[in-house]
C-alpha cells in the first residue's frame, strides 16, 4: 500500500482523570504506551501502543511529525530568518510551526504523517481554546501537504480519546462557522474513544459530592463542558457527516483505576433505574454518553484509562485502522428469532441478546457484548425479540440528564446488530483463504423479581464466517475450524463442493455456502441450537468514497 493512501493522522488524548499533570508530562500523551498479553504469540503478544504500532506498520505507514508543531500557554514570536516557505504568522502564536524541524521531518512528504495534539499545554483551559488550536493545527498540516503537491490534501484523520472528542467537536463546529461545509473537506474521518459526547452522568449528583473528588477545582471550566443537561452534541450533524465518525464505547468499569468515578456512575444508575444493579460505563463515561445519534459505534470490553484501556489496547488500533482505511463495510441484522426455553414460572423474565466479533489472525475483538459488559440488546419480553427498548437514535438525542436510560435497543433500523469495516487488500497470511470472523452469539435471561435466577444462559454458540471479497463476494458459514486450517487451506471452489455434499444436513453442516438474497443486499445466516434459533442477515458493501 503506497503512502498516498495514508492521510495525516492527529491523535488527541483526553480526560483520563481529574488531574491532567500526567498527560502534560507525557511526550506522546499516552499514545506511546502499550499492553502485554501473556500467553499470546507474535504480533498478538506485545502491543507497542497506538503510536509505535502505526509507525511500524507496513500496511498503513506513518512518520512521526509531532515535534513539527509547538504548543504554548502564552504566544511566542516568530524567530524570523529563513522560514523554509512558512510565513511569520505560521511560526508565531500558541500553536506554531517550527520551521527547522519541519524542514527535516517533512522533507519527503507531509501525507502519512502522525501528529499528537497537545491541547493541555494551551491556556486558558476551555473547549473553545482547545478547539481553535486544533483548527489551526489542521490548517497548518493542509499547508504542509499542499506545499509538496497542490491539490493533494484530502483531509486529516482524527483519533480522539475522552475529552479529546469534545475538542474535536468544537473544532468541527468552528470550521463550519468560518466556512460552511469546510469541516467535511478538512477532516476525513474521526474515531472517538470513550468520549462523553452527552456528558458525564454523575454530574447530576449533588455538587458537593462531585466537588469532593481530587483535582476538580483546577478543571472546573472543563467539567462544565461535561454537563449531562447539554445537547450541544446535536449541533455536530450540521457541520460534519456523522457516518464518518466512529464512536468506540468501553464497557469494563471494573478495571478503571479512578474508583470514585466508577462509584458515582453506579449511583447515577439509581436515578435512572431506581436501583444499583448496573454500572454501564467504562469507569468514567456511560455507554449511553459515549455514543452519538446517527454515528456508527462499537463496544470494546476495556476501561476508560489505565492498563489495557480504550487508549492503549490492541482492539482500539485494529478498529480505528479498519474504519480509517477499510475497503468494505460489513453489517449484521436480526431477521427473525425464537426462544424456545426459559420464561421461568416463578418470576418475571426478560431476555437479552448479544454478539461478539473477532477476526482471524488478530486475536482481539472488533465488537463485544456480554452480560458482564452490561451492554446486550434488551430487555425483551417476547420470545421472538420483537419488542424491547425504543429506537436508539431517538433516545440518544435526549439530554443524558433525562430520567431513564433506554439506550440498549438495536443499533439501527431493521434490528441492526453490528456494523464494522474490513480491508480486502490485506492478506494476514500467505496461505490465508479469504477473511474469517468468529461470531459469538449469546442469549441470556434474568428474573426481575428476584425469585428466579438473574444470569440464566439460554443459548451460546460460536460460528465462523468466511468472506471471499471481490466483484461477486462469496460467504461460507463454518461451525468449526476444520476447513480453516493453514495446513490444508480450502479455497472457494473446494468449499463449494464440501458445502454441496453436506447440504442435506442443513444448519448442522460443518460448512454452508450462504445464498445471496436477491430482494435486498446481503446473505441469510441461520443459527440454531437448544433453546434458540434465529435468522441473521449479513451484508458487505464497498466502502464509501470518504
Low-confidence stretches: 203-210, 213-218
Query: What Rg do the Cα atoms give?
Result: 24 Å
Estimated structural class: alpha/beta
Distance N to C terminus = 18 Å
Kindly report the spatial arrangement of strands forming the biggest sheet: 4-7-1-8-9-10-11
What is the overall number of helices? 13
Into which percentage range does the β-strand content fall?
15-25%
Helix content: 10-25%
Please report the total strand number as a whole number: 21
Mean pLDDT: 88
> What about the largest sheet?
7 strands, parallel
Shape: globular
Describe the structure.
By secondary structure, the protein is an alpha/beta fold. It is built from 13 helices and 21 strands. The strands form five sheets. It has a seven-stranded parallel sheet with strand order 4-7-1-8-9-10-11, with helices on both faces. A six-stranded antiparallel sheet has the order 14-13-16-17-18-19, with helices on one face. Helix 4 (127-148) crosses helix 5 (163-178). The longest helix is centred in the first third of the chain and has 22 residues, at 127-148. The two termini are 18 Å apart.
Amino acid at each position: 500500500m503506497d503512502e498516498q493512501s495514508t492521510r495525516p493522522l492527529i491523535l488527541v488524548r483526553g480526560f483520563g482523570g481529574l488531574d491532567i499533570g500526567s498527560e502534560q508530562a507525557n511526550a506522546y500523551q499516552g499514545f506511546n504506551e502499550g499492553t502485554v498479553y501473556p500467553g499470546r504469540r507474535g504480533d498478538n503478544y506485545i502491543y507497542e501502543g497506538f503510536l509505535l504500532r502505526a509507525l511500524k506498520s507496513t500496511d498503513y505507514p506513518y512518520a512521526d511529525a509531532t515535534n513539527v508543531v509547538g504548543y504554548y500557554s502564552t504566544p511566542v514570536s516568530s524567530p524570523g530568518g529563513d522560514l523554509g516557505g512558512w510565513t511569520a504568522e505560521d511560526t508565531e502564536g500558541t500553536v506554531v510551526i517550527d520551521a527547522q524541524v519541519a524542514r527535516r521531518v517533512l522533507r519527503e512528504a507531509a501525507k502519512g504523517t502522525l501528529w499528537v495534539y497537545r491541547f493541555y499545554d494551551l491556556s486558558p483551559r476551555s473547549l473553545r481554546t482547545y478547539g481553535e488550536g486544533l483548527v489551526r493545527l489542521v490548517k497548518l498540516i493542509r499547508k504542509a501537504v499542499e506545499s509538496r503537491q497542490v491539490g493533494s490534501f484530502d483531509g486529516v484523520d482524527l483519533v480522539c480519546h475522552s475529552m479529546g472528542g469534545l475538542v474535536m467537536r468544537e473544532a468541527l463546529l468552528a470550521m463550519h462557522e468560518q466556512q460552511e461545509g469546510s469541516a467535511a473537506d478538512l477532516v476525513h474521518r474521526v474515531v472517538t474513544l470513550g468520549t462523553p459526547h452527552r456528558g458525564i452522568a454523575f454530574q447530576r449528583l449533588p455538587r458537593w459530592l462531585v466537588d469532593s473528588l481530587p483535582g476538580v477545582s483546577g478543571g472546573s471550566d472543563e467539567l462544565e463542558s461535561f454537563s449531562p443537561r447539554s445537547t450541544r452534541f446535536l449541533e455536530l450533524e450540521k457541520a460534519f457527516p456523522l457516518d464518518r465518525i466512529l464512536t468506540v464505547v468501553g464497557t469494563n468499569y471494573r478495571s478503571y483505576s479512578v474508583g470514585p468515578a466508577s462509584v458515582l456512575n453506579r449511583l447515577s444508575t439509581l436515578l435512572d433505574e431506581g436501583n444499583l444493579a448496573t454500572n454501564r460505563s467504562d469507569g468514567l463515561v456511560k455507554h449511553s454518553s459515549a455514543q452519538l445519534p446517527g454515528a456508527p459505534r462499537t463496544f470494546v470490553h476495556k476501561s476508560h484509562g489505565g492498563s489495557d484501556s480504550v487508549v492503549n489496547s490492541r482492539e482500539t488500533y485494529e478498529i480505528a485502522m479498519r474504519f480509517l482505511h477499510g475497503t468494505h463495510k460489513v453489517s449484521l441484522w436480526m431477521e427473525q428469532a425464537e426462544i424456545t426455553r426459559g420464561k421461568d414460572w416463578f418470576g418475571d423474565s426478560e431476555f437479552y441478546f448479544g454478539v461478539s466479533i473477532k477476526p482471524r489472525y488478530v486475536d482481539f475483538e472488533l465488537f463485544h457484548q456480554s452480560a458482564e459488559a452490561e451492554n446486550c440488546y434488551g430487555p425483551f419480553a417476547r420470545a421472538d425479540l420483537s419488542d424491547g427498548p425504543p429506537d436508539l437514535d431517538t433516545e440518544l438525542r435526549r439530554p443524558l440528564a433525562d430520567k431513564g436510560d433506554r439506550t440498549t435497543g438495536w443499533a439501527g433500523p431493521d434490528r441492526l446488530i453490528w456494523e464494522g469495516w474490513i480491508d480486502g487488500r490485506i492478506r494476514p497470511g500467505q496461505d490465508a483463504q479469504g477473511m474469517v470472523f468468529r461470531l459469538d452469539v449469546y442469549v441470556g435471561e434474568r428474573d426481575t423479581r428476584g425469585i428466579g435466577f438473574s444470569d440464566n444462559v439460554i443459548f451460546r454458540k460460536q460460528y465462523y464466517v468466511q468472506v471471499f471479497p471481490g466483484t461477486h463476494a462469496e460467504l461460507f458459514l463454518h461451525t468449526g475450524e476444520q476447513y480453516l486450517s493453514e495446513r490444508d487451506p480450502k479455497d472457494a471452489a473446494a468449499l463449494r463442493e464440501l458445502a454441496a455434499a453436506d447440504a442435506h444436513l442443513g444448519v448442522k453442516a460443518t460448512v454452508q455456502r450462504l445464498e445471496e438474497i436477491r430482494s435486498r443486499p446481503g446473505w441469510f445466516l441461520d443459527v440454531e441450537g437448544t433453546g434458540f434459533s434465529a435468522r441473521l442477515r449479513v451484508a458487505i458493501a464497498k466502502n464509501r468514497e470518504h
